[in-house]
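Researcher: Quick test of sequence recovery. Tokens follow.
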């Protein structure tokens, strides 16, 4: 199967960004492929390829699971997880009840703005004193709860729940390995449930498998380039800058997709 230049660039570019930040392949590739292919074929194919990439990243950064467990982050506590479920239900209902064009455009603008702000943000400084430490923990818990609700909502509404999680990890200035591991743990968990749903509905048909085979060379090739860039070309202290730039790219891609759907 042949692809247009723009579609091929979106698939490969999504792989590159995925290799750097563990996010964004479904948005880049899914948005481009859905222009000419049915969503019922595109969504499972893109998800499965993204999961292959995330499993690879999780193996690469498995040390973050042992030495610095990512589930100690407040976003993995019970409260944010419950709110993510609430948000998922609300987002799903909104998807069924209203056209999302205007809110998609708003999310695109907010994502670009978040990336721009993250570029100018240094590492969070720890407050001094017991009272300040209590205030810091309170604010971090509040951010985690808001992130859980927003991630569930946007995942149910338009399948972009990764954006709030990405912003949260940038706020926390999480180190590179735990950053990647946290993203992979969060979204592989969600995708496992989605995979069970696809299997139950017999949605993994021949067209899905064929699309995976068609786009895998571009996607995985881009992923390898992104992973090499992250490990060897992007200095560790510049990792958050690279992710912030990826966030801006995600926002731009979402805006372009929204504009294309409106035409």
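Model:
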């Amino acid at each position: 199967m042949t692809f247009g230049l723009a579609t091929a660039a979106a698939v490969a570019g999504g792989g590159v960004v995925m290799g750097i930040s563990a996010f964004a392949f479904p948005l880049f590739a899914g948005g481009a492929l859905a222009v000419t292919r049915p969503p019922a074929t595109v969504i499972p194919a893109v998800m499965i390829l993204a999961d292959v990439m995330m499993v690879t990243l999780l193996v690469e950064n498995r040390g973050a699971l042992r030495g610095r467990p990512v589930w100690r982050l407040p976003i993995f506590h019970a409260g944010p997880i419950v709110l993510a479920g609430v948000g998922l239900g609300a987002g799903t209902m909104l998807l069924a009840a209203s056209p999302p064009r205007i809110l998609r455009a708003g999310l695109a603008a907010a994502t670009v703005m978040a990336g721009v702000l993250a570029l100018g943000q240094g590492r969070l400084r720890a407050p001094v004193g017991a009272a300040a430490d209590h205030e810091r923990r309170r604010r971090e818990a509040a951010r985690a709860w808001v992130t859980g609700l927003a991630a569930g909502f946007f995942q149910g509404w338009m399948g972009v729940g990764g954006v709030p999680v990405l912003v949260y990890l940038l706020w926390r200035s999480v180190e590179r390995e735990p950053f990647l591991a946290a993203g992979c743990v969060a979204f592989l968990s969600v995708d496992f449930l989605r995979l069970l749903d696809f299997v139950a509905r017999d949605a993994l048909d021949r067209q899905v498998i064929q699309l995976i085979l068609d786009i895998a060379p571009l996607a995985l090739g881009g992923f390898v380039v992104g992973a090499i860039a992250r490990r060897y070309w992007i200095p560790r202290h510049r990792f958050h800058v690279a992710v912030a730039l990826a966030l801006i790219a995600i926002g731009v891609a979402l805006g372009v997709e929204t504009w294309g759907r409106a035409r």
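The chain has one domain: 5-262.
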